Amino acid sequence: MTLKRRQTIVLVANDVGGKGGMESHLEEVITRLKRDYNVVVVATTMNLRDPEGVRFVRVPVISRPVPIMLILFAIVASFRLLFIKRDLLHTTGAIVFNRADFSTVHFCIAGYRQALGGREATQGRPWPYRLNQKLTTGIALAMEKLIYRPSRTKRLIAVSNRVKSEIISFFPYDSSMVEVIPNGVDVQTFRPYDELRKRETRMRLGLPEKALLLLFMGGDWQRKGLDYVIAAFNQVAEQFPTLELLIVGSGDSESNRKQVAAAYRHRVRFVGKQLNPEEWLGSSDLFICPTLYETFSLAVHEAAAAGLTIMATMVGGVEDLIDHKVDGYFIERDADQIADSLRELLLLEGRSELGIKAHNKVQALTWDHTYRLFSELYDRELVP
Question: What pLDDT digit, counting tens, does each position of 129-140 carry?
C-alpha cells in the first residue's frame, strides 16, 4: 500500500500574521491549512501564534518607503520562488512575477481609482506624502496590469462580489475564472452584549451608562467619511439629546473635533486606536461607516456580529451582507442624507431587530467556512 504524499502549497504575502485584515486572514487560513497540506510561507515577516509545521522563507526587504519595498519584494520573492518545489502557488495580491495558480484580491487598486472618480485621495497632505502615495499607486497599478492575466495568474479569488465585478471589468478574466471567498468573522469574539455586560463594560471604558452610542471605527478617516458623520451628528444632536458619537481609531482628532458644533463637543469622544474592538462594539448601539471604498469591510461585519444596527455605504462586502431597511441601512456620503437616515432609525420602533437580523446573517461567515471553500478549491486544482 502506497501512502498518499502530502502536497505542498506555497503562500506569498508581504506580511503574515499579526494585526491587519490581510495578515490575520492569512493566519486563520494557515492555521487550518497546515493540518491537510505542507505549507511554505514566503514573506517579509511571519508572526503566527502557532508557527509549528509551517516553513518560513523570509524575503529580507525594507518596509519603507513603500514604493521601493514593492519593487524589491517583487524581485527578491520571485527569485526565491524559483528554488521552492511546490504543487500549488497562491499569492496575496499582485506582488510577484512568477506564474501562480491563485491570487487572492483583498484590494483592487484599479477599482479604488474608479471609486475616487478622478479626485485626489491625498488632498491637503504634505507633498512628500502625496508623492509617496502617487508612486505607490502607480507601481501597484502596473503590477495588477502585468500579473492579473490568466497566462500569469490562472485564477483570482475575490473577497466579495464587488471585487469580482471589478476584476472582470478591469482584467481579462471571465466569471468562471474568478471565485468569491469572503473573509471569515470571529463570531465567538464579536457577539452581542446583554444589558448587564454592556453596562459593566461601559463603566470600565468610561462611557456614559444611559447614552445612545453611535460608533465610528477605523483609520483613514477621509476615505471612511468621518467628516460626513460629524456634520450629520451636528444636525441631529439637538433632537436626540442622549445620542453620543464615539470615534475609535487613529487620525487627526484635533482638526476633526473642531468640526463638531461647540454645543455638542462634550458628546463626541475620540478614544484613539484600541486593542479590544469587541468591547467598544459591545458597548455601542449603532455603527456608522460612510466609506468611499471597501472590498469586504471586516469592521462592518464585526459590528453586525456584535448585533449593532448598521449604517453603511454600498461598498464591497457590505452590499452582500445588508438588505436596506431589513437588517441595516444603506447611506450615502452626504451629511444631509445621513442625518435623515439617522433620524429615521432613531425614531424607529424595533430598531434593534435590524441588528439581530444582521447578527444572524453573519454567523455563517466563520473562518472554518472560509477555509472549507479554499480547501475545496485547492483539491479541485490538485486533482491529477
Answer: 788 888 999 999
